[in-house]
Amino acid sequence: MNMGNIVKNGIVRENPVFIQFLGMCPVLAVTGTATNGLGMGLATTAVLLGSNTVIALMKNFIPSKIRIPSFIVVIATFVTMIGMVMNAYLPDLFNALGIFIPLIVVNCLILGRAESFASKKPTGASMVDGISMGLGFTLALVVLGAVRELIGSGSIFGLELLGEAYPAMGIMVQPPGAFLALGLLTALFNVVILKRIK
Amino acid sequence: MREIIKLGLILLIITSVAGLILGGVNSMTADIIEARALEDSMEAIEAFFPESDDAGIIDDGDVLAYDLVDEVYEVLQGDTVIGYTIKTVPNGYDGPIELLTGISIEGEITGIEILSQTETPGLGDRITNDEFKDQFAGQSSDEELEVDALSGATVSKNAVVNGVNAATEVFEEELRN
Amino acid sequence: MSDRLIVSSSPHLREDTSIQKIMFDVAIALIPATIASVYFFRAPAAMILLISIISCLVTEIVVQKIRKTPVTIHDGSALVTGMLLALNLPSTVPLWLPVVGSVFAIGIVKQLFGGVGHNFMNPALAARIMLTISYTDRMTGWVEPGVDAVSTATPLTFVKDFTAVQDGAPSFVDLLIGNVAGSMGETSALLLIIGGIYLVYRGVITIKIPGVYILTVAIATLLYGGFDVQYMTFHLLSGSLMIGAIYMATDYASTPVTPRGRIYFALGCGILTATIRLFGGYAEGVGFSILLMNTMVPIIDRYTAPKVFGEVKKQNA
User: Is C187 within 8 Å of C181 (Cβ atoms)?
Assistant: First the structure.
């Protein structure tokens, strides 16, 4: 298994957001600011790394008939742990992400990687896959968050960039803006990046 | 039959291990989370009443029975009560807003602080801006609040006003002597 | 290219030979209301109209150049979108606002979905709602007609949350000729109706959609006001009901194709408008109603499709 290929797949060629359209709930819901996108992306990456590793280690122990409940238990454990740790040490981020932290459990990206990768491949490869898929997800969330925040409130990562005179386009930080920005960015991603790879 | 028992046992093992791990993490973080929440409240209370030395939670069913009211702190200087800080949880545009209102014993609002909120970034979350919060300080608890509109964030603004009103109501009816 | 299969939603047969004719008829029908808007709101109104039309045309050209499709600004649809958008704005908006609205209307709502005939929402109306959500304060800077631009409330605030017309409300004569505050082109009910009669006469629209739409709002407000005819008439003549019902709920691409479907569509618009006006947070609900019903069009079309001759009910397989 070529590790370089796994990384490239996760971040670009099979990007979870722009290519696979997985985990749309957090993608659309928490990307009102770049900071929230980054926090959600990293939390998902941590869960993905943990669940991929544990599931790859346990794949011979788990009978295939009960693999889905077992995967969900493993994933839910990591999500709950990360939620508690975040609440204790990163309270601001925890407040901002709110209900979407527990919802990482049902992010189909994580179960998808467990089912299609970690339960079939060696542990090392599964860890790399978890990190690169997570980073691909994070990258997409940060870009989406940055674009929406810049147009919708004139700042990126809370830094005022466009000044007082810029009339913030409020719709971009509201739910409709998430769909608009995702559609336009996906088109851009397909035109600019995928053409270059092929 | 045997297979079901085997599968059940395996799931039992997995969930037990998961439960043990979660219990461990919870016992490690629970104290920090609680301490931090209290610290946030204490910091706000100090900002409302710079001359205070101590504050204590009032555990009175009558007071806590009021709508939206979540916690009430008695602010002390030495042994005299110099004011109250009331935590209310009004409903905003996108979920509950946790809000602290400081009211001096004379009935003057000394300040408000937003502890947590999930309002729309860029619109509703402007309720956490100092310009917005500062207009509450100095108003009287027995008069109607005067608050400037936040364009595009009326629901969020009204939620904060409701929270502060709930706090002044409980102060006027129960706490003020 | 020609050997590729093109997959698109129904209807598959679109008559486009007369787009130009239809669009210029709509433009002509809008002229009385446009002149009135310039008369009532003076130079700012003229500037906004001009900027809105030009930026719609420019956006259409730019997007079609990028998409490498034939430039079709001569069909007049971008011109109509520009006019409708301007007529939907208050006369006090800053001059960049119609530009943002035009780019959104033409670039995103119309061209991204395939250009004229493929938009699933009315472009001008979608832009108006987008602008209202984004720039609420600027989009509600209503002023009284005249040179001085005194800011004031729109007529609808005199009936919002009431069951009778309040004192101080504008007279019916003012509402008819348009001597009231509001978006530039929606103030004069009479001129909009005259344009509508022209469109019906020319066969561009049928009376069905505007008729059912306005009638539904009439019945709802009559019931709500306790059979107060004055209250009902006030509701019908104020806000953007006329411009919405006559010019925007009749947009070909974003309304049902079946006659029965059009009635359901107009009925839905009317019920939603009345619901938002009478029970909602906003004073005006025409824009939201039409957009919401626009999104329902595929479902309406599906369930109102006429039976094909010789079609048999499906047997239980």
Answer: yes
The pLDDT of residue C1 is 47
CA distance, residue B42 to nearest chain A CA (Å): 16
DSSP label at B108? B
pLDDT at residue number A134: 94
CB contact under 8 A, B10 and A88: no
Per-residue tokens: B169:
């109501």
State the average pLDDT over residues C209-229. Answer: 91
- B38 contact A CB<8A: no
What are the DSSP calls for A166-194, one per residue?
S---GGGGSHHHHHHHHHHHHHHHIIIII
pLDDT digits (tens, 9 = 90+) for C83-120: 999 999 998 899 999 999 999 999 999 998 888 888 88
CA gap C231, C214 in Å, rounded: 14
Among C141, C164, C161, CA closest to C153: C141
Q: Tokens for C41?
A: 């709101």
Q: Which tokens hold the place of C260?
A: 């029965």
Residue A174, chain C, CB below 8 Å: the answer is yes
pLDDT at C22: 87
- Extract the tokens encoding C266: 């107009």
Contact status of B151 with chain C (Cβ, < 8 Å): yes
| Average confidence (pLDDT) per 10 residues, chain B, 177 residues | 89 93 91 82 84 79 82 85 89 86 89 83 78 87 81 81 90 81
Give the length of chain A.
198
> Which of B36, B40, B121 is the closest to A32 by Cβ?
B121
pLDDT of residue C15: 56
Coil/strand/helix, residue B150: coil
B64 in reach of chain A (CB within 8 A): no
Mutate to test the interface with B, among C129, C135, C136, C139 (most CBs of B within 10 A): C136
The reply to whether A36 touches chain B by the CB within 8 Å rule is yes
Smallest CA–CA distance, residue C136 to chain B, in Å, is: 6
Do the Cβ atoms of B97 and B127 come closer than 8 Å?
Answer: yes
ipTM over 0.85: no
A43-101 pLDDT per residue, tens:
999 999 999 999 999 888 888 888 899 999 999 999 999 988 888 888 878 877 766 78
Classify residue C146 as exposed, middle or buried by CB count within 10 Å of its CB (0-12, 13-18, 19+): exposed
Please report, for residues A183, B69, B100, B162, the alpha-carbon distance to residue B83 in angstroms, rounded to integers and kept in the order given: 53, 16, 13, 20
